[in-house]
Design a protein that fits this description.
The complex is a heterodimer of chains A (about 500) and B (about 110). Chain A is mainly α and about 500 residues long. Chain A is built from 19 helices and 2 strands. Chain A has one domain. Chain A is about 70% helix and about 0% strand. Chain B has about 110 residues and is mainly alpha-helical. Chain B has a single domain, classed as Helix Hairpins, CATH 1.10.287. In chain B, helix 1 runs antiparallel to helix 2 and helix 2 runs antiparallel to helix 3. The chains are: A mainly alpha (about 500), B mainly alpha (about 110).
Chain lengths: ~500, ~110
């Protein structure tokens, strides 16, 4: 049974989606039941996977029972298992929120949501680059339709540019894979890593392929010149969909981290591929996002800018390829995912209470909702990186680990400046939303918020304090995951076997 | 043969990118289609171009690499589905905004 655990996070949502498609005439409660049980099972299987992976060995699951590098394998190390658990938890909370009534606003919400989870989980677990492309497409196709869920002019517009951009990105991904296969003759990540260490290939072409690959991941992760799509896309999506989308930028970041640590860093010709440009661009992304947050006019846009800021902060780290920096980044990644998602859900709950002013950041009708105000306060403190919650710890760990690096001073200046700008923006937003009342505007009768939505928001916000209280075990796990990631020999041996794994391949013309 | 295939891929890519940068949705869809043709050909060529060689390994016989063919097949299926979906999105955007401009409105 343990041998098959690696496939469970992918299979469970797939089966759930099929069941939901088959039972779509039986009513929404059945669909919700299937979806929520699948989410629960997904969390349980991810916890189980985490237990297995934390033993320290690399779990390799050969799909179709063909050994790597010929067959496609799923590879579970601590990083993959941790990301699988993060995805399962976030998906569970988003689905719980959507079960409060969002799923009624269009058709086929539940199967699409499960397929999106399947794509994300697959992207984290696969050990083959072409398989990664396929799971990216599963994830993207589901996200195209989920983005349009609920309808409306803004969503149609955002959908079009999002789909076109990602199709172009997919074309670039395929070009990178073609170059890589033409140069190295393999697409298995471990095999790629091994072949990059020998010098029997065209170095210029391999570097070009690597750079293109990173560019595609950077598009998903929203690195600055490729990040203009993010704010209006995420702001247009429905609240639970946007909450799930928060993990999609993290897919790109983790892909960069993994490819850099396993394939590029140990190779003499590729090790410097990311230095010199990734960190400056990431710093510019952080500043761009902080300025965007300052001028945001709606709370949903504000949340999207916060997501971009955390993506930029995380993108500072891969170029360094150091275990302690990556460990700090992983802790930061976990807490920023939960809080980013919480902000999108909060934005909708607040918008519902403010009538036609909705989530515009301006004075509106007064509404009495102490728990919502308190929730916003905790989420804001966490997002701003102020003590005592997890945002502060995450930022502190990152700053401490980056202090000794070459660009340490610049990183400190940018992160602290951006942090200050975000605090200003957050305090302005909070005071306009909750304190400044405009008697001219009329609140609609406050709709009763379904308990599912309330519970989902509270769970996500609770991540801020909880990740601070349990910071030690989470940070320790992140440290073990980072150490494992930056010792890629075990990964390569685990996938390809320890005995002379270079399959002799005839020379190609 | 390499020169012909390379030129074809280059021309397809250039036309595809040119059309993708247009302001109306239909040329953009056409551009993406051309770009995906170019990418498929490129992917196919990554296994090296061989004439009269089966994709089977037999002792001593010449063979062509079968893996890129499988990759191209996957890429074609995915690309086709995505293009179909993009057309639907473009039609819906036009129905809702009354305009086929990619931003949903003309710059005044």
């Amino acid at each position: 049974m343990n041998a098959h655990t690696a496939i469970f996070p992918i299979l469970i949502p797939l089966i759930a989606a099929l069941l939901q498609l088959a039972s779509r005439d039986l009513g929404l409660s059945i669909q919700r039941g299937i979806g929520l049980s699948a989410a629960l099972l997904g969390i349980l299987s991810a916890v189980w996977l985490l237990q297995l992976a934390d033993g320290g060995s690399i779990l390799v699951y050969a799909l179709g029972d063909w050994a790597a590098p010929v067959g496609i394998v799923l590879v579970v190390d601590r990083l993959a298992a941790g990301m699988a658990l993060l995805t399962a938890l976030l998906a569970g909370a988003s689905l719980l929120y959507a079960s409060g009534g969002f799923d009624k606003r269009g058709r086929h919400f539940h199967p699409l949501f499960q397929l999106q989870i399947m794509g994300i989980q697959g992207a984290f677990l696969t050990g083959d680059l072409f398989n990664l492309f396929v799971f990216f497409e599963v994830m993207l196709l589901a996200s195209y339709t989920l983005l349009a869920h609920g309808g409306g002019l803004a969503r149609s517009r955002a959908s079009l540019s999002y789909v076109v951009l990602n199709l172009a990105g997919s074309a670039l991904f395929l070009i990178a894979l073609g170059l890589l296969y033409g140069t190295l003759g393999t697409l298995n990540l471990a095999d790629v890593a091994l072949r990059l260490q020998t010098a029997e290939h065209d170095i210029a072409l391999a570097r070009l392929a690597g750079a293109l690959l990173i560019a595609v991941f950077a598009l998903k992760a929203a690195l600055l010149p490729l990040s203009f799509w993010l704010p209006h896309t995420y702001a247009a999506a429905g609240a639970p969909v946007a909450a799930l989308f928060v993990i999609m930028t993290k897919v790109g970041i983790v892909a960069i981290l993994r490819v850099q640590a396993i394939a590029f860093a140990p190779s003499p010709t590729m090790a410097d591929l990311l230095t010199d440009w990734l960190t400056p661009l990431a710093l510019m992304t952080v500043l761009f996002a902080a300025l965007g947050a300052l001028v945001a006019t709606r709370l949903r846009y504000f949340a999207a800018w916060l997501v971009l800021a955390s993506a930029g902060t995380l993108l500072i780290t891969p170029a360094h390829a150091q275990a302690d920096i990556t460990a700090a980044a992983l802790y930061y990644l976990v807490q920023s995912t939960f809080i980013g998602a919480a902000f999108f859900l909060l934005a909708e709950l607040i918008a519902e209470r403010r009538g036609e002013v909705a989530d515009a950041i301006q004075s509106g009708p007064s509404f009495q909702s102490p728990w919502l105000a308190m929730g916003f306060f905790i989420a804001a403190i966490t997002a701003a990186g102020l003590p005592p919650f997890s945002g502060f710890l995450g930022k502190l760990m990152l700053l401490a680990s980056l202090r000794e690096t070459a660009a340490g001073a610049a990183i400190w200046i940018v992160l602290l400046t951006a942090g200050f700008l975000i605090i200003v923006a957050l305090s302005r937003t909070g005071s306009r939303l909750f304190w400044q009342h405009n008697p001219q505007t009329q609140a609609l009768v406050t709709p009763a918020t379904p308990w599912q939505s309330v519970l989902a928001v509270l769970l996500l916000i609770a991540a801020g304090p909880l990740l601070a209280i349990f910071a030690r075990p989470v940070a320790d796990y992140a440290a073990r995951a980072a150490t494992q990631l930056h010792a890629p020999g075990a990964y390569v041996n685990g996938v390809l076997g320890t005995s002379g794994h270079l399959i002799v391949r005839e020379a190609r013309p | 043969m390499e020169a012909i295939v390379a030129t074809a891929i280059g021309i397809l890519t250039a036309c595809g990118i040119f059309l993708m940068l247009r302001a109306r949705t239909f040329p953009v869809v056409l551009g993406l289609t051309l770009l995906s043709y170019a990418v498929n050909l490129f992917l196919f060529a990554s296994g090296r171009l061989m004439l009269d060689a089966p994709p089977l390994i037999r002792a001593g016989a010449r063979y062509t690499d079968p893996l890129p063919q499988a990759l191209v097949l996957t890429a074609i299926v995915i690309g086709f589905g995505m293009t179909a979906y993009l057309l639907m999105v473009a039609l819906r955007a036009m129905a809702e905004t009354g305009d086929d401009h990619v931003d949903g409105r003309e710059k005044s």
